[in-house]
Amino acid sequence: MAAEYVTGLDIGSFSIKAVVLSHKGKVPKLFSFGSIVAPQPGIFSDAEPDLEIAAKAIKNLLISIKVPSGSSIVIALPESKIFTRVITDLPFLTDEELVSAIHYSAEEFVPLPVDQVNLYWQVISRSKQHNNTQVFVVASPKNTVNKYLKTLAYVDLHPSALETELIADARALVGNNPFTPTTLIIQLGATSSDYAVVSKGVILLTRSIATGGMALTRSICQYLNFEPTQAEEYKKAYGLLEDQLGGKIYQALKPLVDIIISEASRVIQSFQTQNPQNHIKRVVLTGGGAKLPGVVGYFANTLGLEVQEADPWQFIEKDSNVSPKLLENGMHYTVAVGLALRQE
Known about the structure:
By secondary structure, the protein is of the alpha/beta class. Among the domains are: 83-140, Dna Ligase, domain 1; 177-310, ATPase, nucleotide binding domain (Nucleotidyltransferase, domain 5), CATH 3.30.420.40. Helix content is 36%, strand content 27%. It contains ten helices and 13 strands. The protein has a five-stranded mixed beta sheet. Strands 11-10-9-12-13 form a five-stranded mixed beta sheet, sandwiched between helices. Helix 8 links the parallel strand 12 (282-286) and strand 13.
């Protein structure tokens, strides 16, 4: 039986976010949400004292937003720590045959021995007529999974499920409406930029590069000889606005943003080559970097596609007394919302 309340918990590099949804009615309803600054180094450390501090911070956040007793908890594993791939070149295989085929295929894209990862897969399509099977595969290192579970166990929290950030993003931003246009989601995170092409609720292509918000901040530091704190402030204030501050922040950020966009172009081209009848109609930006001034327009002009800021609240019922300002910052909660939308 599915839980009446589901709590999505997004443990990020710099913040920890939680969203509680009620699943009592036909439409999920926002119960509560909140965020805190993540302790450093927190869950990304291997030292037990750091993990205990992170656990206590998570527990305090859940208490502060009044998570109902019995709520199911779903957490996200960061894309930078896991490996995902859509395998498109398999012949027609039964479920039993897929097991060995996926283990063999995983050796090609997972830089770890297969016995050191947990493998999850979902069949996208299977055709005996065309002798083809397409599978979405996630490989999560066992030591990473165990560290997350161990951290939460310090404060007696036991998640019902672990997911990838991109799976949560897809659920929150695209859903499974067959009439939603094929969408490229770009998550502009702190340490990476992650891409997922989603069609009819199914992830058909993923990619990730190690260029994120921290790299943008470092670029400003080097270009203008700023301290990191000052560079971060200027990045958030001026972003990609060419007419602000003499265009200096724009010039510092442009080369790295162009790398992110070039990868997006490659993802689009790769998808269109494999799926000539299914065109990507829009791009949705999420993650902290999506809030930078001018970034949506810059992506749209460069890619030549409709580009939107993420709205993770679109499938959720909300009370009128919820602060509009908080909802405006909802993009930061995209992963947490997607996790809370999960139903067993």
